[in-house]
């Protein structure tokens, strides 16, 4: 483990607000939404409990991926990236560390929400289905790591703080992570199908059912990841290592 990687991982992981919004909150929502949709009898429907668990796993992973990578804007503002440039550490290594840290930090919400679904809401999946669900959502989180890098390079420090909240809410609310897309009006359903969060959750639902994700869902996620990564590289090449004051 390189010193830079260990430093960056500790730096983000010890942020209490980050842990609350990406781990604790999705786990709490898992219980809350299940109880809300339990119906008058108070009995939790197994299918609904599973769907809610998958959605909240996706929600937590999206928040973790964005939160771990959008901090690039803060690193530029503080001069940290410029300081790294004068060290022997290659710039490609710095970017690689950011990507790896972003991917690793999506695992805690995936695991904690899965445990909450299993032991609090009684979601019962076969061991292979749990492994497939976590694995699929972990790999798919690369889309939002790429999006976070793009936003981190494109936005200034003051804008980035608000952007992560707005983007997170849009992806969750309109992507069907808080309310099933089936309950949307037809117009909003079309919007949902145009968001990576919808296809991300779809891959998780397929895995939870013991099936392979659809070709369309996988192709959509690969397409989004490719676009976000290409734009991030393009913006990074044009941006200064320090934020513009003002």
Report a brief summary of the structure.
With 246 residues, this protein is mainly alpha-helical.
List keywords for this structure.
13 helices, 246 residues, globular, single chain, mainly alpha
> Which term fits the overall shape?
globular
Number of domains: 1
**Largest sheet properties:** none
- What structural class is derived from the secondary structure elements? mainly alpha
Order of helices and strands: HHHHHHHHHHHHH
Q: What's the count of strands?
A: 0
Helix content: over 70%
Mean pLDDT: 87
Uncertain regions: pLDDT < 50 for 5+ in a row?
Answer: none
Radius of gyration: 18 Å
Query: Can you count the helices?
Result: 13
CA(first)-CA(last) distance: 38 Å
Could you characterize the architecture of this molecule?
This protein has 246 residues and is mainly α. It has 13 helices and no strands. It is globular and about 65 Å long.
Topology:
Elements: H1 3-13, H2 16-36, H3 46-69, H4 72-78, H5 80-85, H6 91-104, H7 107-119, H8 127-140, H9 142-154, H10 157-174, H11 186-192, H12 196-208, H13 215-238
């Amino acid at each position: 483990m390189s010193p830079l990687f260990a430093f960056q991982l500790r730096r983000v992981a010890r942020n209490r607000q980050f842990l609350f919004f990406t781990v604790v909150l999705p786990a709490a929502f898992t219980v809350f939404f299940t109880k809300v949709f339990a119906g008058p009898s108070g009995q939790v429907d197994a299918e609904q409990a599973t769907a809610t668990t998958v959605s909240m796993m996706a929600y937590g992973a999206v928040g973790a991926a964005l939160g771990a990578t959008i901090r690039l804007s803060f690193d530029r503002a503080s001069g940290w990236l410029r300081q790294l440039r004068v060290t022997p550490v290659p710039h490609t290594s710095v970017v690689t560390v950011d990507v790896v840290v972003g991917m690793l930090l999506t695992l805690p919400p995936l695991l904690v929400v899965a445990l909450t679904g299993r032991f609090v809401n009684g979601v019962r999946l076969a061991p292979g289905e749990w492994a497939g669900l976590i694995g699929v959502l972990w790999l798919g989180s690369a889309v939002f790591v790429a999006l976070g890098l793009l936003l981190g390079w494109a936005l200034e420090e003051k804008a980035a703080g608000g952007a992560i909240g707005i983007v997170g809410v849009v992806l969750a609310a309109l992507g069907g992570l808080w309310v099933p897309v089936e309950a949307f009006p037809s117009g909003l359903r079309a919007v949902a199908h145009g968001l990576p969060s919808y296809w991300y959750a779809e891959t998780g639902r397929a895995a939870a059912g013991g099936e392979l994700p659809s070709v369309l869902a996988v192709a959509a996620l690969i397409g989004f990841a490719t676009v976000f990564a290409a734009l991030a590289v393009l913006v990074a090449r044009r941006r200064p290592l320090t934020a513009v004051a003002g």
